[in-house]
Amino acid sequence: MARRLGLALATILLFLGSASTAGAQAQPPKAPANDDCLACHGDAEAKRENGTSVAVDQKVFADSKHGPLECVDCHKDLATIQEFPHPEKLAKVNCASCHDEEGAKYHDSIHSWAKEKAGLAVAPACADCHGTHDIRGTDDKTSRVFRANIPATCGSCHQGVLDKYRVGIHATKRDAGNDAAPVCADCHTAHGIQRTDTDAARLSVTAECGTCHAESMRTYRDTFHGQVTRLGFVRVATCADCHGAHDIFPKADARSMVNAANRVTTCQKCHPSANENFAQYDPHADRHDKARSASLYYTGKFMDGLLISVFGFFGVHTVLWFSRGLKERRRRQ
Ligand code: HEC
Ligand code: HEC
Ligand code: HEC
Ligand code: HEC
Ligand code: HEC
Ligand code: HEC
Ligand code: HEC
Ligand code: HEC
Ligand code: HEC
Q1: How far is the CA of 271 from the centre of ligand 9 (A)?
Q2: Residue to mutate, 145, 184, 186, 211, ligand 3, most ligand atoms under 8 Å from C-beta
Q3: Which of 22-31, 192-201, 227-236 has the lowest average pLDDT?
Q4: Exposed, middle or buried by CB within 10 Å (0-12, 13-18, 19+), for 75?
Q5: Is 102 exposed, middle or buried (0-12, 13-18, 19+ CB in 10 A)?
Q6: What mean pLDDT is predicted for residues 4-9?
Q7: Which residues contact 42 (CB under 8 A, 6 or more apart)?
Q8: How much is the average pLDDT of 243-266?
Q9: CB of 224 within 8 A of CB of 218?
Q10: pLDDT at 150
Q11: What pLDDT score does 290 carry?
């Protein structure tokens, strides 16, 4: 009933519209206004033949970031339509026509690849992460992509990962109010998400850990693993190989991969013959930190001392030799 009412109303509106422009034949056809569309779609009962809803909540749309837009700015194939009803099947909305930058990054992502190339209908397009008529800005607490809501948005598909992430230190710190702890998009990016087993992804996540853990990054860079990783060779251990990716815990936590009880197992993933002794090796050894790396500290100091005394000895030797040579030359003259 309500829908039929809507249809009738739309027909009248259109009739009025064409009557008023009848005198100005030469004018280019006017694009339908939002009210024209809402005459049918503003009805909460509006449905397709198959019973699924085609209702658009006018208030929700008006409050969204796109509230100022025309329906046909997105539903472009209806921009030139003169008569309703319009065709049943319409073109998909192309968000990238206005958001070129996000569109270009998304184009090269695993999600786009999975959707377009592998034909996985379950892979997300823009609207699966952002919504359609209720899209809000990143600074809006009710937005699906507001920082605190990102794990739930990604987790709606990656439930297994979300479960692990939720118990880890990063999520528990976030729950305790530390907004500096990372969400999915910090480590994976939002639009240019890559398969995580690629070298590029492994290196970029490692760099990302380092943006927050600068000290751990510095000491890691000094070790064999870090030196080699810096050269771009990623088969050695990256942060996530030793700490995990989603269920990361402080070392004192029994679930931590670097907890004293689990450390040998962690090293054994790549060093099959590793034992307790091998695992004593500190992957974050710091030769400037006496308390942490005493032997490295004293070895470092010894080497510094050796360097100074060797150069010192030969320095003095050279000076004496030079003045001796000078004296000798004067004596001969
Ligand atoms: C006369 C009523 C009416 C008007 C006016 C109308 N629509 Fe529709 N629209 C419908 C109906 C009915 C359907 C469901 C068609 C079906 O059965 O699949 C629909 C479907 C749609 C769909 C879904 C298409 C798809 O491929 O699934 C979109 C998008 C849409 N309309 C947008 C608009 C826009 C934008 C306007 C204004 C320019 C508009 N409509 C005006 C009645 C209308
Ligand atoms: C920011 C872009 C944008 C604007 C503006 C927009 N839509 Fe949509 N609309 C979408 C997207 C995205 C979809 C999902 C289908 C698709 O991807 O094409 C959609 C789907 C629809 C559908 C199909 C039912 C549904 O909810 O999936 C209808 C009907 C519709 N829009 C009507 C409207 C009307 C009426 C307006 C103006 C009041 C409007 N749209 C404004 C992006 C937009
Ligand atoms: C896998 C989920 C996902 C998909 C798919 C996705 N986005 Fe996003 N988008 C996000 C997240 C998360 C943010 C939050 C900001 C951030 O971390 O970069 C965001 C932010 C944005 C922003 C705001 C950027 C800013 O700096 O304020 C725009 C615009 C945007 N996305 C557009 C798009 C468009 C267009 C597409 C499709 C080409 C798309 N998004 C696809 C998750 C997604
Ligand atoms: C006709 C052009 C147009 C289309 C098409 C369009 N948008 Fe937008 N979008 C805008 C404008 C304009 C803004 C507001 C920008 C502002 O306020 O700075 C905006 C804002 C946004 C924001 C909020 C950015 C922020 O401030 O955090 C997101 C997210 C977004 N759009 C996503 C999408 C998605 C997803 C689609 C496809 C469903 C889409 N847009 C289609 C023009 C468009
Ligand atoms: C602290 C950085 C970090 C955060 C935060 C993070 N990830 Fe990951 N993620 C990684 C790393 C590193 C890998 C690679 C793991 C590996 O190689 O064992 C990965 C792997 C993945 C994979 C593929 C492998 C798998 O386990 O299925 C998915 C999917 C994924 N992450 C989704 C997410 C989602 C969803 C979130 C948020 C709930 C998230 N990630 C949060 C770093 C992170
Ligand atoms: C609508 C469902 C959906 C949403 C939402 C979603 N993803 Fe995905 N994601 C997928 C699918 C499907 C794949 C491809 C699966 C595959 O081939 O491994 C995928 C792949 C990935 C991969 C690569 C996995 C690998 O094997 O290395 C990562 C990482 C990832 N997604 C992270 C995210 C993040 C971060 C977000 C939120 C910003 C997110 N996803 C949102 C469905 C989704
Ligand atoms: C966006 C910033 C950010 C990123 C990216 C990040 N972390 Fe964290 N991480 C934190 C914060 C904040 C804490 C909590 C510190 C605290 O209050 O104890 C934390 C805690 C930890 C802890 C527990 C020990 C401690 O100092 O509390 C470990 C281990 C850890 N992170 C490892 C990693 C690894 C490995 C990666 C990359 C895969 C990573 N983090 C990426 C911010 C980050
Ligand atoms: C070869 C394995 C390995 C690699 C690679 C590695 N770590 Fe560690 N990490 C450890 C071990 C073992 C400890 C505990 C050392 C100790 O006993 O103090 C640790 C300690 C830490 C801590 C302090 C944890 C706490 O609870 O106090 C943080 C934070 C950390 N690592 C971050 C990182 C980051 C970021 C990277 C990459 C830049 C990284 N780690 C690379 C093995 C590793
Ligand atoms: C993801 C794989 C991986 C993990 C996990 C890993 N390593 Fe390594 N590590 C390597 C590779 C590859 C090399 C270089 C080849 C070699 O020498 O075995 C290396 C080299 C080393 C070296 C220098 C070369 C040597 O063998 O003397 C030390 C020391 C070392 N690792 C200690 C550790 C310790 C301790 C752990 C556990 C806390 C650990 N590694 C975990 C891959 C890993």
Answers
A1: 6
A2: 145
A3: 22-31
A4: middle
A5: middle
A6: 41
A7: 6, 55, 56, 58
A8: 97
A9: no
A10: 98
A11: 76
